[in-house]
Specification:
With about 325 residues, the chain is of the alpha/beta class. The protein folds into two domains: about 210 residues, Spore Coat Polysaccharide Biosynthesis Protein SpsA, Chain A (Alpha-Beta Complex); about 90 residues. It is about 50% helix and about 10% strand. It has nine helices and seven strands. A seven-stranded mixed beta sheet has the order 3-2-1-4-6-5-7, with helices on both faces. α1 links the parallel β1 and β2.
């Protein structure tokens, strides 16, 4: 059983050494532990620090590509290196490396495909009261969208099984946490959370400029990912509301037209009824088209998985069983 700990980095020379020193190289149930440092266009001595502290593999980009791209490239490299489990951690030493065995234990026992480290956001002293509330609220909303219970969705300290690595995709270059959580829920992967420890904050986040920027961008990513799996029910729900309003306004006009002697024909009701009926019909059609696109995406995901299996087989590694086989 091979575990690879991947560390996406952007100018982390000040903290990367502590991160690498904190990664345990002997874990029960794991025969090999390796470290992959993903240098996302760093302009400082990040790569030199990685080599100095014994990183087994270094993947470097000539310029910054974004965290999402780094995560996706890291997963591909880990699969080619023969990883059975991948743990993702940050280069800013936010997470306690000694907790990695806690993350991999549910995967080793077959209870989970993805294990997310729970920082208990409501108790993290480095978080302001506003950030604590937003983290908890965001986790509840995304858990509802994903149909799984994840108390700390924004945690980047995660363990992925081989099955999860073969199944998940990442379309955004911003962050992976919300997108992977929603995908995992709708792909019926087993997701668990375990309490973890955190280290004192070493620096401000480079991923976003403010809490509100993170909330906004994560919200857009979450809704887009959710819509890829639930477009038809969502559009049909909104379309039904619009259609119902149109019918009610039409009935209002007929009532006044038939049962009253007023000279006011309530033309505004007819106009609004037509608008709502057309809008509802358009939403129904949009939902059908979106559902066809979602079906096509599922076919592409299945094709991508099979391509990955063929690539692993070409490299001499036995692919994991396909869930439909």
């Amino acid at each position: 059983m091979k575990l690879i700990v991947q560390i996406p980095c952007l100018n982390e020379e000040a903290t990367l050494g502590d991160v690498l020193k904190g990664i345990p190289r002997s874990i029960p149930g794991i025969s090999v532990v390796e470290v992959l440092v993903i240098d996302d266009g760093s302009t400082d001595g990040t790569v030199a620090v990685a080599r100095e502290h014994g990183a087994d593999h270094i993947l470097s980009f000539p310029r910054n590509r974004g965290l999402g791209f780094a995560i996706r490239a890291g997963f591909d490299r880990c699969l080619k290196l023969g990883a059975d489990i991948v743990v993702n951690t940050d280069g800013d030493n936010q997470y306690e490396g000694a907790d990695i065995p806690l993350l991999v234990a549910p995967i080793l026992s077959g209870k989970a495909d993805i294990v997310i480290g729970d920082r208990q956001p409501g108790t993290v002293q480095d978080f302001s009261p506003l950030k604590q509330r937003l983290q908890l609220l965001g986790s509840r909303i995304i858990s509802r969208l994903a149909r799984v219970d994840v108390p700390d969705v924004a945690s980047g300290f995660r363990a992925y099984s081989h099955e999860a690595l073969m199944t998940l995709n990442l379309l955004t270059g911003f962050d992976h946490t919300a997108e992977h959580t929603i995908q995992a829920g709708h792909q019926r992967l087993a997701v668990l959370s375990v309490p973890i420890r955190t280290n004192p904050k070493a620096r401000e986040s480079r991923l976003f400029g403010s809490v509100w920027e993170f909330v906004g961008r994560s919200g857009v990513i979450s809704l887009r990912t959710w819509a890829q799996y639930q477009a038809l029910p969502a559009f049909f729900a909104f379309g039904s509301v619009s259609f119902a309003l149109g019918i009610l306004l039409g009935l209002r006009f007929l009532y006044f037209f038939i049962f009253t002697q007023t000279s006011d024909l309530h033309v505004q009701s007819v106009v609004l009824a037509a608008i709502f009926l057309l809008a509802g019909f358009q939403m129904f059609l949009t939902g059908i088209v979106a559902d066809l696109i979602a079906a096509n995406r599922r076919l592409l995901e299945d094709t991508q998985r099979r391509v990955r299996e063929l690539e692993l087989a070409a490299d001499g590694r036995e692919p994991s069983p396909h869930p439909t086989d």
